[in-house]
């Protein structure tokens, strides 16, 4: 009888133990990260010499992440009409830049610089080790806006243009 | 409510099987079928496969259409069915403790353990008396590095190892450093091989151990074991080697290599996980301080009951490996060449990490320029491979092995290790090549670095802002 009882307990334990791991396993990537990685939005390049285009290039190959974000701005309204990105980096970096490129579209320049890395990280449920990807995306947006503004100041001829880039333009 | 009903039905089938008394084999079948029928009564599918359904597999948030093809043989290998056949009786009917001296169960288990010991000794050309069973190469490495130094601590205070060793050797060395021992970490060349002159000049009068792995786990390069052994013999320094990745893959001869200690593992050679061995030379005798205290099994070096089925499986795996090493090598070499040639036909900027000549053929560690390794792995979910890069860990550092080779940091971030083994097929290789090429092309399309290079910009000339 004791043997039977212990068998029974074991049976339950075995069954519980077998079903649980599948649920406990942490997700490697949130669905949205995978979605943006598989079908990234706005991949590509604009002509960086176009005065209506601002280019932000941030990160470093040695760190494993490089992001290039480009915005096309309507000069009259100051609105970002289109965006493109290219990213060398992990899936989260690609997803972060894809999200950033989508979010800046249709917004005013002063509006997009308020986009916080935490919003991107929250949207993609990035784990702590991947937070730098969203920070890089925020930096890329800011660098692109800065580049555009520097270009415009230069073409207006007023005052010396700032050497804008965080990471140098080639 | 539902659960209790289930339980009742499950236990009633169980009771039936327990009360009937057919022959043991029959009983087993009945037991197995009863448990599966109990699972079938349950509304959810078979527990272990709950992540698998007709549409594919979902795990850790990743969806795959079927089981990925396996190319990660350096991490672990499947158990050869012939090995499993040898093991099963020792789980089901011959389950005695090999240290029991008073009955048949013990005697037959002891016999099986001793047979396995001879099989393992044979493949490395040692005596069975020189083999100690452990839980795996990590334990063997710990006993070797810490055990030797602790035993000879009064006279010997210095250890020599390499920068590309397995973590468990490096970590054991760090532990020794904390206890006040000196450790020299020899650098390696860009091909991953150590400089013998550097080894010679690193040896001091108080050097108590040289520990250098035979085949590297990440890049597969083979160190010049005989030459290292000769230097150690000349200076009378014990030589330990971690041969977990070498066993059954390249010919091993403890006499030719002049090793005093050698760590071996079962699951890298189609044997079971959780078992390994330590070779310890008898003449001249090498002594270690045990890392585990207990019943004094394995001549007091590794207390704890020897796990008969695992040890039997390890022995069987060694015997198979010895018989089939040449055949496997030939097949795996052909597959490796096929893979490398096909990838190189379709992609530029592909670099083999580590020496191409002095290399175990089943390891192909490649870097794909301008593509980041982790994103490549993420896109290669249908292929089970691993990246040398430790990007998924909190460190975000590229592999220390590749950095030791002096691989550019950006290239160290892009490495993938393809591990080919006994059961890998041509079709698997072709599919892996197809998927890899497709994914690398897609990621390069997305890579700002690739774009710059195509525009003729040298990435190394750019002042990157370091984060």
TrEMBL record, chain A:
Q: Per the record's keyword annotation, is Mitochondrion included, yes or no? A: yes
**Where is it mainly found?**
mitochondrion
- Tell me, what's a Pfam family for it? NifU_N
Q: Where in the cell is it found?
A: Mitochondrion matrix
Q: Which UniProt keywords apply?
A: 2Fe-2S, Iron, Iron-sulfur, Metal-binding, Mitochondrion, Transit peptide
The question of whether Coiled coil is a record keyword is answered with no
Task: Output the Gene Ontology terms for molecular function.
Answer: 2 iron, 2 sulfur cluster binding; iron ion binding
- Cofactor field: [2Fe-2S] cluster
The NIF system FeS cluster assembly NifU N-terminal domain, residue ranges: 29-153
A Gene Ontology BP annotation from the UniProt entry: iron-sulfur cluster assembly
InterPro entries in UniProt: ISCU, NIF_FeS_clus_asmbl_NifU_N
A GO CC term attached to the entry: mitochondrial matrix
Task: Name the pathway it acts in.
Answer: Cofactor biosynthesis; iron-sulfur cluster biosynthesis
UniProt record similarity statement? Belongs to the NifU family.
Instruction: Summarize the protein's role.
Output: Scaffold protein for the de novo synthesis of iron-sulfur (Fe-S) clusters within mitochondria, which is required for maturation of both mitochondrial and cytoplasmic [2Fe-2S] and [4Fe-4S] proteins. First, a [2Fe-2S] cluster is transiently assembled on the scaffold protein ISCU (ISU1, ISU2 or ISU3). In a second step, the cluster is released from ISCU, transferred to a glutaredoxin, followed by the formation of mitochondrial [2Fe-2S] proteins, the synthesis of [4Fe-4S] clusters and their target-specific insertion into the recipient apoproteins.
Q: What is this protein called?
A: Iron-sulfur cluster assembly protein
Query: From which source organism is this entry?
Result: Carpinus fangiana
TrEMBL record, chain B:
Is Membrane one of the keywords UniProt gives this record? no
Needs which cofactor? pyridoxal 5'-phosphate
Q: Where is the signal peptide?
A: none
List UniProt keywords, sorted A-Z: Iron, Iron-sulfur, Metal-binding, Pyridoxal phosphate, Transferase
Cellular component terms per the entry's GO annotation? cytosol; mitochondrion
**Which molecular function GO terms apply here?**
cysteine desulfurase activity; iron-sulfur cluster binding; metal ion binding; pyridoxal phosphate binding
Q: EC number(s) for this protein?
A: 2.8.1.7
- Its Gene Ontology biological processes? [2Fe-2S] cluster assembly
Top-level taxon of origin: Eukaryota
Q: What class of enzyme is it?
A: transferase
Keyword Cell division recorded:
no
The segment(s) forming the Aminotransferase class V domain are 70-431
The similarity annotation says: Belongs to the class-V pyridoxal-phosphate-dependent aminotransferase family. NifS/IscS subfamily.
The molecule here is called: cysteine desulfurase
Lineage, uppermost ranks:
Eukaryota, Viridiplantae, Streptophyta, Embryophyta, Tracheophyta
């Amino acid at each position: 009888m004791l043997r039977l009882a212990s068998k029974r307990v074991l049976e339950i334990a075995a069954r519980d133990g077998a079903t649980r791991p599948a649920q406990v396993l942490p997700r490697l990537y949130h669905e949205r990260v995978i979605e943006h990685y598989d079908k990234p939005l706005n991949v590509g390049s604009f002509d960086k010499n176009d005065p209506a285009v601002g280019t932000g290039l941030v990160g470093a190959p040695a760190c494993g992440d490089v992001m290039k974000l480009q915005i096309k701005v309507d000069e009259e309204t100051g609105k970002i009409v289109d965006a493109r990105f290219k990213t060398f980096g992990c899936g989260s970096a690609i997803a972060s830049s894809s999200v950033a490129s989508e979010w800046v579209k249709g917004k005013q320049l002063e509006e997009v610089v308020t986009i916080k890395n935490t919003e991107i990280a929250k949207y993609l449920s990035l784990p702590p080790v991947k937070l730098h990807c969203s920070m890089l995306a925020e930096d890329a947006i800011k660098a692109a806006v800065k580049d555009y503004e520097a270009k415009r100041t230069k073409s207006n001829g007023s005052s010396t243009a700032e050497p804008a880039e965080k990471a140098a333009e080639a | 409510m539902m659960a209790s009903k289930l339980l009742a039905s499950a236990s009633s089938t169980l009771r039936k099987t327990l009360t009937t008394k057919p022959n043991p084999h029959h009983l087993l079948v009945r037991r197995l079928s009863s448990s599966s029928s109990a699972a079938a009564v349950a509304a959810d599918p078979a527990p272990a496969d709950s992540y698998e359904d007709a549409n594919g597999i979902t795990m850790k948030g990743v969806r795959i259409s079927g089981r990925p093809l396996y190319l990660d043989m350096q991490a672990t290998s499947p158990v050869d069915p012939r090995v499993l056949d040898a093991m099963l009786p020792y789980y089901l009917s011959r389950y005695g403790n090999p240290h029991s001296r008073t009955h048949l169960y013990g005697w037959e288990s002891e016999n099986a353990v001793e047979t396995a010991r001879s099989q393992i000794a044979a493949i490395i050309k040692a005596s069975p008396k020189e083999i100690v069973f452990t839980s795996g190469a990590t334990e063997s490495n710990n006993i070797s590095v810490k055990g030797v130094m602790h035993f000879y601590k009064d006279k010997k205070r210095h250890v020599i190892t390499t920068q590309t060793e397995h973590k468990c050797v490096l970590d054991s060395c760090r532990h020794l450093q904390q206890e006040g021992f000196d450790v020299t970490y020899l650098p390696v060349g860009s091909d991953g091989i150590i400089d013998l002159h550097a080894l010679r000049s690193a040896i001091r009068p108080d050097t108590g151990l040289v520990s250098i792995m035979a085949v590297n786990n990440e890049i597969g390069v083979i160190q010049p074991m005989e030459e290292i052994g000769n230097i150690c013999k000349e200076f009378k320094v014990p030589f330990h080697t971690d041969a977990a990745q070498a066993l059954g893959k390249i010919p091993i001869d403890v006499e030719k290599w002049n090793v005093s200690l050698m760590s071996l593992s079962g699951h890298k050679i189609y044997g079971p996980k959780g078992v390994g061995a330590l070779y310890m030379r008898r003449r001249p005798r090498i002594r270690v301080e045990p890392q585990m205290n207990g019943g004094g099994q394995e001549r007091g070096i590794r207390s704890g009951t020897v796990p008969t089925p695992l040890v039997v499986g390890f022995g069987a795996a060694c015997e198979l490996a010895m018989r089939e090493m040449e055949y496997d090598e030939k097949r795996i070499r052909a597959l490796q060449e096929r893979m490398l040639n096909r990838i190189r036909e379709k992609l530029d900027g592909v670099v083999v990490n580590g020496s191409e000549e002095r290399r175990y053929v089943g390891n192909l560690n490649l870097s794909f320029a301008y593509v980041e390794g982790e994103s490549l792995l993420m896109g290669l979910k249908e292929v089970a491979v691993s990246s040398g890069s430790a990007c998924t860990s909190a460190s975000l550092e590229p592999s220390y092995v590749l950095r030791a080779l002096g691989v550019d940091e950006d290239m160290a971030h892009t490495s993938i290790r393809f591990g080919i083994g006994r059961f890998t097929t041509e079709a698997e290789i072709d599919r892996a090549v197809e998927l890899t090429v497709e994914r690398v092309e897609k990621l390069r399309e997305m890579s700002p670095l690739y774009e710059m290079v195509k525009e003729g910009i040298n990435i190394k000339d750019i002042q990157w802002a370091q984060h």
